[in-house]
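Sample pair:
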Amino acid sequence: MDEYKNVLLNIEGNIALLTLNRPEVHNALDPQTWAEIRSAIRKCRFDQDVRVVIITGAGGKAFASGADIRSLRARETLEVLKFESQEALNDIENLDKPVIAAIDGLALGGGCELAMACDIRIATTRTKLGQPEVNLGIIPSIGGTQRLPRLVGIGKAKELIFTGDIISAKEAKEIGLVNKVIDQSEDLLPSAREMAQKIISKAPVAIGLAKMAINISANTDMNSGQLFEKLAQTIAFSTDDRIEGTSAFLEKRKGDFKGK
């Protein structure tokens, strides 16, 4: 286990569990926490054993309750330009490995934006999500105005951001903000690990290429996206995993993928 002040990074087999560990402040996100998140994600990027990352929050009351308000109030105007939270979320989104957010309790403001930067979001019935920044006289500024419309549509994103409304996990699932809702909190991490293991059983190069292609589709035109998709498929065809996968299918057995 790596030593950080505000997060815990525990790598078990092919799964990296990144836990926000400030339960006394509902895992509020201050500059130190963002820096540690970014450091942990970089470690996962270069650790070849890590195939899936799960991000969760300690304490049972919050995934992340948003910005540390004391830190926010004290921050000078131009410090916003130097704040690395946006870069941390871009690192998560661009990581060539799937990232699952396991959300229990509050995911507000920066916490909701952190969840949205992940590839898959699993919540519990007591989860609450929202972008209430307008109540503080500011706006979502670490990708919230960009990722939320892509996930739920422009109209719903404007409603949530303009009103600052906080919604239930049930509504979040209905509008596409979360993928799955778990009844019991104690089943959250087992469910996330089960999904992670399902992903791990697939060809890792193909998973990474698919993630890149999907992400590019949100930021480019159809023709450019399809061109990248074709190039990504060409790379996938060059791998040993492609031979193994097609052989396993023909031989009616489970594929044994090596990521090569």
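The chain has two domains: 7-200, 204-250.
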